[in-house]
Design a protein that fits this description.
Blueprint (H helix, E strand, L loop, with lengths): L1 E4 L2 E6 L2 H9 L2 H4 L6 H6 L14 H14 L1 H6 L1 H17 L4 H18 L9 H17 L23 H30 L6 H6 L9 H35 L1 H15 L14 H13 L9 E2 L4 E3 L2 E3 L4 E4 L1 H5 L30 H4 L10 H18 E5 L1 H5 L20 E5 L2
Parallel strand pairs: 2-6
Antiparallel strand pairs: 1-2, 3-6, 4-5, 7-8
Bound molecules: protoporphyrin IX containing FE.
Keywords: Heme, Iron, Metal-binding, Monooxygenase, Oxidoreductase
GO molecular function: heme binding; iron ion binding; monooxygenase activity; oxidoreductase activity, acting on paired donors, with incorporation or reduction of molecular oxygen
Family: Belongs to the cytochrome P450 family.
């Protein structure tokens, strides 16, 4: 289907076939991002990994750094870090189970800050985390659909800031200054640590001090700065959403929870926490993660793409610069692909003796498409599986008595760029 906001055409792809044919197979045409003149140009955020046009050489350079910096092999090199953050997470959950959402958020932020900058966050109100959150809030406001006319009538960007009605120009000056300061802070911190000899091994230092001894130019350093900047923005909310949905789904599916726990205990016993090297052995838990990503999609509309030229597809004409969105939610709940799509059933993804085919892997849709597909998917999977395994090996999760008194309410979902199941009251109790 398609609709217009002012002069902007938005095309929504609802079928797997259309998404695959256009966003994957024609990715050289469909991998740009819609231009937000307010955010990208007036506020100076064009160069972020998320916003930069795929036609810009920088996008290829960012992706190359991210590919090597957080691919499967690199992810394994962060195992000690992930495992030490798991110990911290489990301790916090034991101390204050009711604050589980805060602990998940903290874990996601702590892990990615250590990976990106070798920075250990302090309390809930950590300066760097606050900085990153502020940047993401400003970006959200600057991108709000329909809010800024300049996004639809780009000539308005030449209106001087003193002109009546040009409040957007004055707002952009304030936001640009704030965003510049915010995005430079962690990189500068790493530089200072390197100068003092107190830096920790991380994505940024590995690139600034390459093992082949090559001197990094100022332009290369700028590319590294923006690539690292994409890590927090990509990881924090998404991991939080998926793990929050996981905990709530476990509360209402005790049978699934028990089966996953048995698998974990069979492999790790009852006394030790799971390690990253154990993760490939967890067949059922891996299926649980797939089912979480399918039944509660983290990014229900992925991120918008833009087509760089007019295109024809199955009799439809898609105009140049149309915004093209994949309806990931509808794909994940398509009965043809996932029979009984509203039931939570990880065995969809496990081959059985009856010869039933395993259902399609939802990771092909959960992490986006073509040249913009999520570069952090391996890292995300490893870090989430570890938290899932650690949580189930130590705690039992159930709906609170208050919730179950009148029968369980139907699951609801938050809306937004990222989404998760709306929290209801649960109990998280340490296993005896
Ligand atoms: C549950 C976890 C995650 C999910 C579901 C997820 C999903 C996505 C999606 C749907 C996109 C947009 C793809 C598109 O436009 O087609 C994306 C992009 C991106 N993700 Fe993830 N992501 C997750 C975790 C992570 C992590 C852990 C990182 C970093 C360590 C990360 C880094 C990025 C970056 C940098 C982009 C921008 C890519 C670009 O525009 O070229 N993500 N992710």
């Amino acid at each position: 289907m398609s609709f217009r906001i002012y002069n902007q055409t938005i095309v929504v792809l609802n079928s797997t076939k259309a998404v695959h044919d256009l966003l994957n197979n024609r990715s050289q045409l469909y991998s740009d991002r819609p231009r937000s003149w307010m955010l990208h140009d007036l506020c100076g955020r064009r160069n972020t990994v998320f916003n930069i046009p795929a036609t810009d050489e920088r996008h290829r350079q960012y992706r190359a750094l991210l590919r090597t910096g957080i691919n499967q092999r690199a992810t394994l090199s962060y195992a000690p870090l992930l495992e030490s953050e798991l110990i911290d997470f489990v301790q916090r959950l034991e101390d204050s189970p009711a604050s589980y959402q805060g602990h998940i958020r903290r874990n996601a932020a702590a892990v990615i800050m250590r990976v990106a900058y070798g920075y250990t966050i302090s309390g809930q109100d950590d300066f760097f985390v606050r900085t990153a959150e502020e940047a993401s809030q400003i970006s959200g406001r600057a991108m709000a659909p329909g809010r800024w006319l300049v996004n639809y009538f780009p000539l308005l960007r030449f209106v001087p800031s003193w002109f009546p009605g040009a409040g957007f120009q004055r707002q952009a000056v304030i936001w640009r200054k704030e965003l510049d300061a915010l995005s430079g802070t962690p990189h500068k911190w790493v530089r200072d640590q390197m100068a003092a000899g107190t830096d920790k091994d991380c994505f940024t230092t590995r690139l600034l001090r390459p093992s082949n001894g090559k001197i990094v130019t100022a332009n290369e350093e700028d590319i590294i700065k923006w690539a690292s900047g994409g890590l927090y923005a990509g990881a924090a909310d998404t991991t939080f959403s998926a793990l929050t949905s996981f905990v709530l789904l476990m509360a209402v599916h005790p049978d699934v929870q028990e089966r996953a726990r048995s698998e974990i205990i069979e492999i790790d016993g009852v006394s030790q926490l799971p390690s990253v090297s154990d993760l490939p052995k967890f067949v059922y838990l891996a299926a649980v993660l797939k089912e979480v990503l399918r039944s509660a999609p983290v990014a229900p509309l992925a991120l918008p793409h833009q087509v760089i030229e007019g295109d024809l597809y199955e009799g439809y004409s898609i105009p140049k610069h149309a915004t093209v969105m994949a309806n990931v939610w509808s794909i994940m709940h398509d009965e043809q692909m996932y029979p009984d799509p509203y039931s939570f059933d990880p065995t969809r993804f496990i081959a059985d003796d009856t010869g039933n085919a395993v259902q399609p892997d939802p990771r092909a849709y959960a992490f986006g498409f073509g040249r913009r597909g999520c570069p952090g998917s391996h890292f995300a999977e490893t870090s989430m599986l570890l938290i899932m395994a650690g949580t189930l090996s130590r705690f039992k999760i159930s709906p609170s008595v208050k919730e179950t008194a009148g029968g369980l309410p139907p699951l609801e979902y938050t809306s937004g760029l990222t989404s998760h199941i709306k929290p209801f009251d649960i109990d998280i109790v340490p296993l005896k």
